[in-house]
């Protein structure tokens, strides 16, 4: 049990309350995916950016379309994170958080890596250091346990602790577990991305969240140095308060932001439905609008494939949505035209 001050406990209570508000907001949605996919895309972008992998939102959204190849190695890596997270959200309902599960997840992430990953899909068998790229041991900020019994034992204790019944509130347990995971650094690559994903999985398992609708990485990215320094400070001093308060503030602000985005997405969807109703449009054009929060960037071939309609029918539906400004063309060229619901894309950016 970490020793934390009354002030840190107050931060934990605030984070727990903010998660409760987000849980309520998600419960009010007719389809929880209205927030899950936007949250996942935003998290994929920023958790990757924290590790030096950058791409623009339109690039990643376009790469999700069938028969579209990623435009860069960075997009390929971010898409691998999405696949890993989707697998984790499915597995966490059936499997406990375990070393084997985390190895499976890291293996998915490693498949999209720009460079070969040592010991992909398994606990590392080589020494790693934390610091500037290609730094020596002397230059490292922190040196995780060597790949021997100390790492194995640490991981076993970590998994027992996070899976044990506990009276600790979910945000506090997730904060402590995140520090412990990052200090162990069990993989050759992807520890930050896997570790931040685990925090969301813990909040799902604790019941603080019913849907993976929170994005912590955008908040950490804006405070990258503070984030790294807080983790290091726990190792240097053994003091938990600053890190717990920092982590809980991230939960509070991002949960409240997500609630606001839910409201704005619902307003946009209501206005879009009204625009269709006023013109008495029905059929595939309505189906597209209902799915635009999940797929805010589309093409005519995508519409034809997804909804099982002909090319002319897909073109007619997209043209109608452009006519009422629900969609706008976001890529050039007459043959491979891509259209986006820019208000939805802007809201994803704001998560």
UniProtKB/TrEMBL annotation:
Signal peptide: none
UniProt-listed Gene3D superfamilies: Fido-like domain (1.10.3290.10)
Organism superkingdom: Bacteria
InterPro entries named among the record's database cross-references: Fic/DOC_N, Fido, Fido-like_dom_sf, Fido_containing, SoFic-like
Ranges of residues in domain Fido: 97-249
The protein, known as: Fic family protein
The organism of origin for this protein: Aquipuribacter hungaricus
Species classification: Bacteria, Bacillati, Actinomycetota, Actinomycetes, Micrococcales
């Amino acid at each position: 049990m970490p020793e934390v001050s009354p002030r840190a406990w107050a931060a934990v209570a605030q984070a727990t309350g903010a998660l409760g508000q987000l849980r309520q907001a998600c419960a009010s949605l007719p389809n929880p995916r209205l927030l899950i996919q936007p949250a996942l895309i935003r998290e994929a972008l920023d958790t990757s950016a924290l590790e030096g992998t950058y791409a623009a939102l339109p690039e990643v959204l376009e790469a999700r379309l069938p028969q579209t190849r990623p435009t860069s190695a960075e997009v390929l890596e971010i898409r691998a994170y999405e696949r890993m997270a989707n697998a984790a959200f499915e597995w966490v309902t059936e499997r406990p958080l375990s070393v084997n599960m985390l190895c499976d997840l890291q293996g998915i992430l490693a498949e999209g890596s720009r460079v070969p990953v040592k010991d992909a899909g398994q606990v590392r068998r080589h020494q790693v250091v934390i610091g500037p790229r290609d730094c020596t041991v002397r230059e490292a900020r922190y040196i995780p346990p060597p790949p021997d019994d100390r790492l194995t034992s640490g991981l076993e204790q970590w998994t027992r602790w996070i899976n044990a019944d506990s009276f600790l509130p979910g945000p506090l347990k997730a904060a402590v577990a995140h520090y412990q995971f990052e200090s162990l650094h069990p993989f050759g690559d992807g520890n930050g991305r896997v570790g931040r994903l685990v925090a969301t999985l813990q909040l799902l398992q604790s019941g603080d969240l019913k849907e993976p609708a929170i994005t912590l990485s955008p908040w950490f990215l804006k405070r990258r140095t503070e984030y790294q320094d807080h983790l290091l400070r726990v190792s240097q001093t053994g003091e938990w308060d600053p890190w717990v308060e920092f982590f809980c503030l991230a939960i509070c602000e991002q949960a409240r932001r997500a609630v606001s985005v839910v409201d704005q997405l619902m307003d946009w969807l209501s206005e879009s439905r009204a625009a269709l109703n006023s013109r008495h449009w029905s059929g595939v054009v309505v189906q597209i609008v209902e799915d635009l929060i999940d797929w805010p960037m589309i093409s005519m071939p995508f519409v034809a494939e997804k909804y099982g309609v002909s090319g002319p029918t897909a073109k007619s539906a997209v043209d109608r949505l452009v006519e009422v400004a629900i969609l706008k063309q976001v890529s050039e060229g007459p043959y491979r035209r891509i259209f986006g619901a820019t208000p939805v894309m802007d809201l994803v950016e704001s998560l």
